[in-house]
Amino acid sequence: MIDRLTTFLSRLPPFGGSVSRIIVEENQTQMFYRKKRRYFWLIKIWIIGISVSVVTSNFKNILPSLSQRKIIWDSQIFKMAMLILFLHFLLTILWEFFHSHYSPIEKWKLEKLLRGFTEESDLLRQHDSTFHQTKSVKWFYFKVKGQIKITLKTGGHLSYNMENDIPRRLQGYLIKETENDWIIEDKYIDSGEIVVIFSHEPDERIFIDDLSQLKQSNEINIPLTKKLTWTTRQPMGLVVGPTGSGKTSLLKALIVSFLANNPKNKIFTIDGKASFLSIAMKRVGKVATDGQSALELTAELCQVMKERYAQINADIDSEKDCTHAELFKQGTILLVADELLALVGEMQASDKLLKPAERLYPQFYANLMNLIVKGRQSSISVIVSGQMLPASILPTESRDSIGLRIALGRLSQQQAQEIFGLGLKDLPRGDYSDYGGLIWLDGLNWELPRAFKSIYYDDEKLPFKKTLSKFSGSQGGGSPQA
Ligand SMILES: Nc1ncnc2c1ncn2[C@@H]1O[C@H](COP(=O)(O)OP(=O)(O)OP(=O)(O)O)[C@@H](O)[C@H]1O
C-alpha cells in the first residue's frame, strides 16, 4: 500500500528531474476494468449522497408543500452537487488528456506509454523457460536537460535475448505511438536492469566560420557535432576516408579548434604527400614531409614526452594522477600525421638500400607507437589520417589506444574491420552524403560507432592559411617545450 502511494506520488510532479516510478503488475484491460468499477462506485456514492442531502435539507419543506399544494424545495445543495460533479468530470477529462499519448507533459505521457509497452511486448509473461510468469516489472524514468533516462527493472525474469532487445523495441514503440524522434543516446544492461537514455533531438553538424565561436580550454575540448566533443578522454585520433571524402577539411577544422583551445597548444605535422596541409602548417609549427625529417620530428616529440614524464613524476609522493596540461598548464602538443601510407612506402623503399641498423622505418614506427601508446599523460596527442591504414602501418594493438575514430565516406569490409574491429553488417547505417560517415568515441559506453556528419569548415569565411598565420602571430609557433 505504502509502495503504491509513493510510486503514485513520484509521478505527480509534471516537471523537474525527480525520478518517477511505475509498477506494472496488470494489463490495460485489467486496469480499465478496475477504473470502470471505481467510477461506477463513485457515481453510486454520489447519487446516494446527493439524494440523502437533498431530502434532509428539504425536510422542513414537506409540510408547507402539502399545505400550499405545490412543491417547495431548497435547490442549493443540488446545485452545489451538480457543480462538484461537473468539476470532477472536467478534472477527470483533463487528467486523462494529460496522461494520454497527446499529453504535452512528457513525464505524464510516459506513464501511459511505458504501461502500453509492457503490455504490447508481453513483458509480464515473457520469461525464461525455467520460470512460469513474471509478476511485475518496475519502470523508473526522469527527464533532465532534454534527455530522458528510462530504467526497466525486470526482476531478472526476462530471457537474455529479450533483455538485449528491449532498447530497440522500446524505441520502435515510442516512435510508433508518439510520432516523435526518439534517439537512443546511450543504453546499458546490468543485472536485471535495462537503462536507455533517449533524446528527441537528432545530432547535427556544426559549422566553423568564425574564430570567436571556438572554445577555449586548458585541455583538448573540441566540439565535433552538436552533441559530441573530442576531449582528453580520447587523446589519440584516426581519420580515414577515400579521396574527396573530406579528411583534409575535417583536419583543418580540428587544427583550428585545437589552436583556439589554448594559446599554449602546439601542432606538428607529418604529411606523406607534401600537399596543401604541409605548406599551410609551416605557419604554426614544424612540418615533416620525408622519412628523415619525420623520424627526427617523432624523436623530438618522444624526448619532450620523456621530459614531461620526468616533470610529472618529480614529486614521488604525489598521489595525483593528472596530465601534464592539468599540472603545469603548458598546453597540449598535437602531432597530425597525414597520408602515412605514402610516407611509409617511401621509407621502406629507401630502407632497402640501408643496413638494418640505419633503416628509418623501424625507428619511426617505434617512435610513433610510443607517442600513441604513452602520449596521453604527457599531454601529447596524435591524429593519424589517410585513405587506408593497413595493419603494417598502424598495428591492431595501437588501434586500441586510439579513442577517436572517424571513417568518412563508404567503408569496405576490410576498412570496417581495421577501423572499428567490426564487420560491415554489424555497423549502423551511416549517412555518407555530404561529408558524412561513422564515428567512435571511447569512454562513452557506446556499443557501436555512430553516424557522423563532419564539421563543416567554411574556407571562404576562414581561409585556412590566413587563419593559421593569425595563430602563429599570437603564439609564435616554434619548438615544443616540456
Ligand atoms: N567538412 C567539410 N567542410 C567543408 N567542405 C568540405 C568538407 N569536406 C569536404 N569538403 C569539400 O570537399 C572537397 C574535398 O574535401 P577534402 O579535400 O577535405 O577531401 P580529402 O578526403 O582530404 O581528399 P584527398 O584525400 O584527395 O585529399 C573540399 O575541397 C571541400 O570543398
From TrEMBL:
Tagged with keyword Lyase: no
Taxonomic source organism: Pseudolactococcus raffinolactis
Residues at which ATP binds: 241-248
Function of the protein: Essential cell division protein that coordinates cell division and chromosome segregation. The N-terminus is involved in assembly of the cell-division machinery. The C-terminus functions as a DNA motor that moves dsDNA in an ATP-dependent manner towards the difSL recombination site, which is located within the replication terminus region. Required for activation of the XerS recombinase, allowing activation of chromosome unlinking by recombination.
UniProt-recorded name of the protein: Cell division protein FtsK
SMART domains: AAA
Domain FtsK per the UniProt entry, residue ranges: 217-417
Cited InterPro entries: AAA+_ATPase, FtsK_dom, P-loop_NTPase
Gene Ontology biological-process entries: cell division
Keyword annotations: ATP-binding, Cell cycle, Cell division, Membrane, Nucleotide-binding, Transmembrane, Transmembrane helix
One annotated GO molecular function: DNA binding
Any Pfam family: FtsK_SpoIIIE
Parts of the chain that traverse the membrane: 39-57, 77-98
SUPFAM superfamilies membership: P-loop containing nucleoside triphosphate hydrolases
